[in-house]
Amino acid sequence: MINRDKLYIFILILTLFCNCRNRNIEYYKNGNIKEKFLTKKGILKENFDNKKIQIILKQFADIEIDSSTILYFKDIRNQKKQIDIYYKTEHKQIIIQENGLIEREGFIKNGNPIFKWKFYGQTGKLELIRDFVFIKGKPFINQEKYYDSEEELTYRGNGFIEIKHKDTIKLNNEFKAVINLPIPFYKKKKSKIFVCLSKNTIDFNDDFSNEDEIEKVYFYNFNTEQNNKKWITGVNFNHSAVIGRKYNQSGKKLMKGIIYEYLDSSKDSLNSIRKKYFTIPFYVTKNE
Description:
Elements: H1 4-24, E1 25-27, E2 33-38, H2 52-57, E3 70-76, E4 80-87, E5 90-96, E6 102-109, E7 112-120, E8 126-135, E9 138-147, E10 153-154, E11 162-165, E12 168-170, E13 174-180, E14 191-198, E15 216-220, E16 240-246, E17 251-263, E18 274-285
Parallel strand pairs: 12-18
Antiparallel strand pairs: 1-2, 2-3, 3-4, 4-5, 5-6, 6-7, 7-8, 8-9, 9-10, 11-13, 13-16, 14-15, 14-17, 17-18
């Protein structure tokens, strides 16, 4: 007859084992691993369906894989793999092609892409960088760059904004920034830009959800504002503008604004507007 104490201990161990298995690993009916949670660096040495994933992880030297990091492996359609990396307060997602190379990678927030995402071809070369921002609660493709190779930028997409400014200014001095759109949305038609900031102390919300209600001040391109041409050289004056504002309080500041690109034709200028959103961080120091 089995000792009750031993039977109780056996059932307890079996229960803990099953709970641990269900919590960390999900299996296919044939016994192969479908999904797996990893919480320690050493576990990476254990067997997994696709050993190439371990090689890929070595590329992420900026991510410290320790007991506070959770890695989530998942098989998705077309024999691809998905890796979700949770570290600190961020969630990075990597999609692996069938050949074991990265297809795309970037950060996730509330199930949506955010910040810069990189897209790669079948040979592993970088083809596209796409920048996502949340506008009125929804992900918005704000900027994008296409590449023929990792070094050569292709004149496609809606381009990345170039912003030149000082990181620190003194109290009551005007903060100035030059906004440049090196790759416009309209490439075969003549277009121009203007930039808007909030006019009063009430600024745009982080997701610009109050964009339609807030009072704005406008800054026009260098060809429209001829006096500002002296501030910059070597750019397309139709796609560049200078913005400015004074601050009467010191501390860290965020200047939020919107770039409007439009066709330089009265008949279709209103219907042709394309927007880009930006936030400029800087400091205002007290006068000594």
